[in-house]
Amino acid sequence: MRGMDAAREACDMLLPQLAPALADVSLPELEVPGGPGLDAFRKSGGPGLLVPAAYGGAGAGALQAARVSRALGAMSPSLGVATAMHNFSVASLVALVASADATGLEWMLIEGIARDRLLVASAFAEGRTGAGVLDSAVTARPVEDGYRVTGSKKPCSLSRSMNLITASVALTGADGTKELGVALVPAESAGISRRPFWSTPILAGAESDEVVLEDVHVPEELMLRPQIELGTGLDTLQTVGFVWFELLVTSAYTGAVARLAESALGSGKGSATDRAALLTGVEAAIALAENTARVVDEGPVGNSELGAVLTARYAVQELLVTAADRAAELLGGLAFVTTPDIGHLLAVSRALAFHPPSRGSMAQALLDHHVGAPLKVR
Ligand SMILES: Cc1cc2nc3c(=O)[nH]c(=O)nc-3n(C[C@H](O)[C@H](O)[C@H](O)COP(=O)(O)OP(=O)(O)OC[C@H]3O[C@@H](n4cnc5c(N)ncnc54)[C@H](O)[C@@H]3O)c2cc1C
Questions:
Q1: Into how many domains does the chain fold?
Q2: Residue 58, exposed/middle/buried by CB under 10 A (0-12, 13-18, 19+)?
Q3: Ligand 1, residues 122, 129, 211, 238: which to mutate, most atoms within 8 A of Cβ?
């Protein structure tokens, strides 16, 4: 499949050691917590993928990153999802380096991420349905030299392997007013612990357990305070973060379904019409994400680009379900019962729907956006 050839080429060019390191590892071995995927990603320099070359990284752009994310999703869906969390956090930090809000620490952080191969978790969800990822119940209490952060984040991918955490928090100002903050916290800080949370074998290799923060000290300069734009519910940096997140996570799931599709196409089973329908569905999903990646590479990224990437993501969500169904049917019942991979990838093909913002929560906002309103994300 041409779209997957491009994905593998990008991965081999930017992270040449990764695919060879995992070539002989089976899907069940990769999809468990503690599997070899994240370690191989780290050893191949993956943490620096989106760090500009001037700061010691591979300096990948959005199109290259989408392709690598697709290749990783095909290699191991768990690795694809977990690294999407890392990469979008890094993309946000890179955007911050260039912004007027930069404190001067950010460039040291991204340089450290590339140099020391650090993994960055993104802790926004709190296990409360309908709460919205920007609606945090984790509190940050001001103290003399910064903040004390307390609460729980779940699910939080990379919970075992992370070196740094970016976490949304509710800041309480001296006058008692509440605002959203994003804390950058070293994972080894006193007061951080992990609890088992992820109880399905699907995507278990992403290590999406609970991270508990108990009175964790965060210095003032490591607490970002987004300036929300009127009407959107987001600041410029959050918009950039969301755009990258949707792009990368959509690409990771596309890769996972493409693996199933390539296997069905390679089997030669079914009619040419059935196989061509499968091929066009997956290539269309790839093209939708790549189109928005090109828009991101052209820059700058704002509310319209967020609308475009979310529209593409929801369209891909449907394409992937149809493609996975078709691929499994073409492969047939004997293939389904004699390997765990097909059932696993079928389940994975549904999980793009579980990433924020859910289609239901954005339906009215998308309709309003397409008749001219700013896209509001909750
Ligand atoms: C593999 C995986 C890894 C993850 N890793 C991370 C991570 O590292 N960090 C992180 O922060 N999060 C992570 N998440 C969690 C994710 O961010 C979501 O927050 C979480 O899955 C939300 O689940 P929920 O059932 O509460 O969904 P919700 O989206 O809250 O809602 C469930 C249902 O209610 C509907 N609904 C909700 N709100 C509305 C509304 N306003 N109007 C209409 N309908 C609505 C939705 O459409 C949906 O059908 C991960 C999720 C997955 C699947």
A1: 3
A2: buried
A3: 129
